[in-house]
Structure formats: C-alpha cells, structure tokens
Design a protein that fits this description.
Elements (H helix, E strand, L loop, with lengths): L2 H6 L19 H21 L5 H12 L5 H8 L3 H13 L3 E5 L7 E5 L1 H10 L2 H9 L3 H18 L1
Antiparallel strand pairs: 1-2
C-alpha cells in the first residue's frame, strides 16, 4: 500500500456507516467556520467600544482606505450584494459616519463619503488590528501565511 492509499483509506476502527471524509474533525470548512466565529466574538468588545458591528467595521475599513468609493465597488471589495450592503450603509449613515451621495459624473451611481465623525472614528479604531494580533498569539509570518491561504482558497472556489 502506498502512502497515498493509506491516507485516503478510511480508518479500520470506523463502522460501515462512517468514513473519515465525513468526520467533523476532518472538515476544513468546520475549522474555518469555527475560527471565523471565534475571531468575530473576539472583535465584539473592541467594536462595541466604538459602536460598530463587525460588518460595519469592515465597511468602514474599506471607506477609510477609499473615501468616495461607489456602492458597487464597495460591495465587490466586501463580497456583498447590494441587498446586504445597502441596509448596512443606511445604518452607518444614521450613525452620522458617512454620507451617500449621487455621483457627479453619473447620477445613477451612489458614492459613499466619510463625515467628520467617520474620519474621527478611524483614529479610535487604529488600535483594533494590533489588539487582535496580540490575541492571536501567532507570529506575524504565520498570520500572513494564513491570510494568503484563505485568499487563495476564496479565489479557487469563486
């Protein structure tokens, strides 16, 4: 038996109705799901301090880097459709963090602009990435490799 055959052959201790491929602990998707949930839970107290939800924080990250971005481009960056993104942006607008305006070149296009409060919030949020890095207790190289692997996985699946 080759190493490859040994790897894909179900374990001998499994019953006829079980296989290694269907064990929860062997699922990459479950590890990703569990890690993502844990990360979002770890962000929660940091984001509550600045009155943002995790999806709102992601939208603000895009806007802090791309003030004046249009809704379509923001949706592409966040991998969100307009049906999900529009209510999120309305809530941020209600909080006074951004303005949604008609595009000057094309009135059909909605552009998103930071308000002064949105710009000020960036300063308050600056410590969040470092705090989360410390919570991870992983070397920066491992985190960079993990991000690259997740990005490649997303690209391959899409």
């Amino acid at each position: 038996m080759t190493d490859k055959q040994a790897h894909v052959t179900p374990r001998a201790d499994l019953s006829m109705n079980e296989s290694a491929e269907l064990l929860l602990e062997n699922q990459v998707c479950f590890s990703l799901y569990s890690a993502a949930n844990a990360i979002i839970r770890a962000y929660r107290p940091l984001l509550e301090a600045i009155d943002l939800t995790y999806p709102q924080y992601l939208a603000m990250l895009v806007l802090w880097a791309n003030n004046g971005i249009n809704v379509k481009d923001m949706g592409a960056k966040l991998h969100l459709d307009s049906g999900t993104l529009t209510p999120l942006l309305k809530r941020l607008e209600t909080k006074g963090l951004l303005d949604r305006k008609r595009g000057l070149a094309d009135e059909r296009v909605r552009e998103i602009w930071l308000t002064e409060a949105g710009k000020t919030l960036k300063t308050q949020a600056k410590s969040i990435p470092y705090t989360m890095f410390c919570k991870s207790e992983l070397p920066v190289e491992e985190l960079a490799a993990l991000k690259a692997t997740c990005d490649k996985l997303l690209s391959n699946i899409n």
